[in-house]
Amino acid sequence: MRGKIAIVTGASRGIGKAIALGLAQEGAGVVVAARSESAPNERLPGSIHETAAEIEKLGGRALAVRCDVTNEASVTAMVEAALEKFGRIDVLVNNAAIDFPFPAREMPLKRWDIVMKVNVTGPFLCSKAVLPAMIAQGGGSIVNITSNAGAERGSGTVGYSAVYGVSKAALDRFTWALAAEEGKHNIAVNAVKPWAVVNTEGMRLWVPEEGRTGWVSPASMVTCAVFLARQDAGGVTGCVAFDDEYIAWHGLKVREEA
Ligand SMILES: NC(=O)c1ccc[n+]([C@@H]2O[C@H](COP(=O)([O-])OP(=O)(O)OC[C@H]3O[C@@H](n4cnc5c(N)ncnc54)[C@H](OP(=O)(O)O)[C@@H]3O)[C@@H](O)[C@H]2O)c1
Q1: What residue spans of 138-218 are helical by DSSP H?
Q2: 65 lines ligand 1 (CB under 6 A)
Q3: Is residue 255 part of a domain?
Q4: Could you give the number of structural domains in the chain?
Q5: For residues 228-249, average pLDDT
Q6: What burial class does residue 14 get, using C-beta atoms within 10 Å of its C-beta: 0-12 exposed, 13-18 middle, 19+ buried?
Q7: Is residue 75 a part of any domain in this protein?
Q8: Structure pTM?
Q9: Is the dihedral of CA 196, 56, 51, 145 positive or negative?
Q10: What confidence score (pLDDT) does residue 57 get?
Q11: Residue 257 is assigned to a structural domain of this protein
């Protein structure tokens, strides 16, 4: 991916950070976008500057930009900063997401709204902001990080909220719509969801140690995000699938250290 530039939202920790490092290892310049400029607290470590420093330590190019994906002005400023530093945008990974895993009857409206704003409006705003650059360049790739919570019937009882599931179903639907709309501009739009729970700072916040059996590293998600980042409309597009499915269908090799 040498010469390519990727924006990864929610890259201060978790899967987003792992994808940012994975794209950088493949040679891409990476815009590390999230809100935390310094680790907010011990239970939720990670910041955009730490991720950018790790990329640079590996010999990669990174730009840390504070960005709240729910705020259009913040998203526009982040994309402008990316273009000013790197001159192009080839890949957008819409990874930032949140949840408050309470049953619907206990969910305050404020929290319902913010989950929808981060998980659905965020990918819309970020996609809208990068599309002019991608179209002018003749193509690009948008990768949405989704969840099976959008497709299965369980909720609340299985560790996530109804609104989280609703938001991920909406993101899947948005993926199909955007793929259909932007194919003519040679832009691929796909979504990938983890088959197994991925051990991240965000997940650890809600689930105690004894409940973490079967959790995996982000390696499969990184492999798939890098694969999808390489696509344009002539390749894989309009696809919403598990990481394990992309890996099987396309014979991808997972690098565990990713
Ligand atoms: N872990 C899993 O097992 C699992 C399963 C299914 C799907 N997923 C999906 O995978 C993705 C990453 O999950 P994760 O477990 O790595 O989550 P995480 O550890 O909680 O990280 C979430 C990231 O999103 C960022 N973020 C939150 N609100 C934001 C906002 N308003 N603007 C910009 N960035 C924001 C956070 O950064 P700041 O706080 O610094 O802003 C953080 O970097 C999500 O889309 C999630 O739905 C994860």
Answers
A1: 162-182, 201-206
A2: no
A3: no
A4: 1
A5: 98
A6: buried
A7: yes
A8: 0.97
A9: negative
A10: 98
A11: no
pLDDT band at residue 255 under the 50/70/90 scheme: confident
Q: How far is the CA of 93 from the centre of ligand 1 (A)?
A: 12
Question: What pLDDT score does 153 carry?
Answer: 82
Which atom of ligand 1 lies closest to the CA of 46? 40
The answer to whether residue 176 sits within a structural domain is yes
Q: What's the CA angle centered on 50, arms 46 and 54, to 5 degrees?
A: 125
SS3 23: helix
Using alpha carbons, list the distances in angstroms from residue 139 to 89, 120, 130, 136, 185. 10, 23, 11, 8, 6
- The reply to whether ligand 1 has any atom less than 6 angstroms from the CB of 37 is no
At 65, list the tokens. 């930009």
Taking the centre of ligand 1 as the mean of its atom positions, its distance from the CA of residue 216, in whole angstroms, is 16
* Residues with a known catalytic role: 160
- CA–centroid distance, 248 to ligand 1, in Å, is 25
| Residues of the domain holding 167 | 5-250
CATH for 197? 3.40.50.720
Q: Is 95 in the pocket of ligand 1 (CB under 6 A)?
A: yes
Closest listed residue to residue 232, CA positions, set 190, 202, 204: 190
pLDDT at 156 over 70: no
Cα dihedral 86, 14, 205, 246, rounded to 10, equals: 130
